[in-house]
Structure formats: C-alpha cells, structure tokens
Amino acid sequence: MTARRGPYGTALGLxxxxxxxxxxxxxxxxxxxxxxxxxxxxxxxxxxxxxxCGCNEGQLGGLARRDSWVWRxxxxxxxxxxxxxxxxxxxxxxxxxxxxxxxRATTMRxxxxxxxxxxxxxxxxxxxxxxxxxxxxxxxxxxxxxxxLRREDGTTVGDAVRLQVRLAGxxxxxxxxxxxxxxxxxxxxxxxxxxxxxxxTLARLAPGLEGASAAVLLYHGEAAEAERLxxxxxxxxxxxxxxxREQALVRPALAVPPVKGRYLGVADLPLGGPGAARxxxxxxxxxxxxxxxxxxxxxDHQRRLLAEGVLDTSPRVEVxxxxxxxxxxxxxxxxxxxxxxxxRSRHRDALEDLRRYRGGRHGDPGCVRCHVTGFGxxxxxxxxxxxxxxxxxxxxxxxxxxxxxAAEPLRRGYGRTAGEALCRGxxxxxxxxxxxxxxxxxxxxxxx
Length: 448
Description:
By secondary structure, this protein is α/β, with parallel strands linked by helices. The chain has helices at 63-75, 92-95, 97-114, 123-127, 185-190, 198-209, 223-232, 292-308, 336-343, 350-356, 365-368, 384-387, 395-399, 403-407, 420-423, 437-444, and strands spanning 4-5, 11-12, 37-43, 80-84, 118-119, 143-144, 149-150, 161-167, 170-180, 194-195, 214-220, 238-241, 249-251, 254-256, 263-270, 278-283.
C-alpha cells in the first residue's frame, strides 16, 4: 500500500479501485497539434446525501471524502475540470422542502470550496421552485449550464460555456453543455419554466461549440436517450448522463455515475488524434479521509437544522390501521423479559448514538428516522421535549403501534413482525451494507 497525504496532512489509504475502467470514446481530430489527455472529473445525483451516517462499516460517499479525493487528483499536477450533472437536493416531497433546500445549499457551498467549474440541474433541484435555483450563491460557486430551460421572458436558466484550460504549455478550449431530459417537461412547467427538446437545443448550440478542442455534454436523463444524442452529434467527445442508476455504466462516449455520490467519475480525454479515452469510477470508501473543512461545513449544516427545528417540518402521515404510540415503558408490566432484553440492546440508546456522533446528528430527519420510534407519523417521535418516551428504536418500531393491544391485550394478531424485510428498512445497502440479519437477531432475540 502506498500512503498519500490528504489536504490537511492526513493519510489517504489504498489506491482507488476502478469500477468502470477503460472505455473507448469518440475523439475529436480538431486539434492537429496533439497533446496530453484532458481530465474531466464528474459527479451527479448527490440526492442530498451529504455524508455516510457512520452507524456501520462499509458505507461509501460523502462530501468530505469527495473533497479529499479531488485534492489528491489535483496533486497529480494535471489540470482538471470538475463538473456535476445535477440533483444536488433530495426528494422534497419525501424529506420536506426546507430540508431539501438546506441540503442543496450546503452541497453548493461544498462544491464552491472544491472548485467545481459547472453544474447542471436535475428534476429534484427544479422541484424546489425557481427561487431556490439561484439563491445567494456562495463565492466561487460553479456556473449553471442548464441550457434547455427557459423562463417566461425567454431567457435561459443556464448557458453553454467555453472554458480555457492550459495543458502542456498551451491553451485549449473546452465546451460544456448542460441539458435536462424531455421526461421532466411537466416538472419544469410546474415551476413556470419551459423545457426545450434536448435535440433542438444541441442543434441550436452546435455552430458555436464545434470549434472547441473538446466538447462535454452533461445530460440529466436516461442513458439510452443520451446515447442517441451522442450519435446524432459526433462533435461531442464525452456525455455524462444518468437518472436513478444504482450501478455505474460505461459505454463509448458515455459515462453514467451511480446515485448518491458514492463514486467519483474520472475521464481522461486525449486531444488531437485517435486513441482511447479512459473512464473510471473511484470509490469514496473508508480508505479516503474526511476533509476537515467539509466536516466543519457539515457541522454548520447540523446546527442550522437544530436552530430551525427542521425535524418538526418533516412530512407526517396517519398511522396505518389507526392507534397511537405508547413507548416501550408501557410494555414492561406484561412483557418484562422482552423489555429487559430490549434494554440491553443498542436499539434502546439509538438516539443517544446520534447525539454523540460528530457533534450531534439528532436534529437531522434523515438520521433520526431510524433512531427513534414512529418518526414520520402523526403520533410518533417529534422531539425530546414532546415525545421523549419514543426516543430510541422501541418495541413498537418492530411490533407496531401499541394502543390497540393495550386496550385489548387478548386480541390475537398483534406483535407479529415482517421479519428481515422490516429490519432492512433501516439496515439497507446504503446505510448498513454488511448487515447480517441472522447474526443481528441473535444479539436481540427475545420471547414474549
């Protein structure tokens, strides 16, 4: 293992594994002088995933790791362009609009610190409304390149850019275009924007971009449509696309990163003649140290969540089947042995784990939902002051709302769980990729 130093003197561990590895791409012959490869580092569909939750091993991604890995790539001495394909925010319907807004703002601040050059828009960004698209942008924020979105006055939300990069002692020009897929027309109309068909936009922009040394398209949409666009516009050297893909995809002239920023895409594009463009995906795993400056930014984000009481703005629904939560203490009288077993488990202190993690994550709805009882329902956990009896993963998290059982304790049917499927609602591949259900059950097994 070769040790590498992070941006603040900390060691980066194992060399990056490559998932996509090598792919042939169409290459421009517009630069007869030849020259070294142009490096494009790309991300997309962060979806509000700011950091791994830290509850378990094996998790990938996070802005703090991303910053450290970008720094390492810059340390190689090769100029690079840093681009993002949109969907910085999570789903505002599922999360609540204010949480999505704050996540997008924090991600944009992190991207400014990392030195991103451009960013496209995705449908999650649009769903926050036009006022959230360009708030008070932080200094150094990336340029918006959503070229096929128009306002009512006819102006575009973003524009294609031509960036000058000094490569091997000479200036090369790189054109970058951002487009949103035609499938998101209704989303655009819902926030008062007009979505021009992507093919028409590319045809309109082509005359002003074909003379660049290299051209990159950021296409927020399905990979199949991106391939059709690449085939119709051979002047494009690389298309970064994707919408909702869990696995990376690499094809000629096309690269699709997985969701949630778990990997950092790296594309090396030779200029000036035939050759192979290499595309790889570097995993942001535990061998990549966290960047302290991004950790400070994330702590600011958490303090703001607490200050604004964002927990209380989370969407809440009626309990399925009715009834209300009682808390685990209500179970002790009749189920003493089971209650004692629960009291010895990590489930009991799950919320306390959040309080201790990196200065506290107990105000973050995305974390709290799996560390308390009934979060997201009208009678479930809200905060410590109002519903402290529901802190921790209590009996009702697995066995269901207890009020009806308490009223009719002899009525059959209560208490049966959905087994492993229920556990994997929180112990999912994203938050607990190494989860072993049988081993976990042995640690908490109990009777009535």
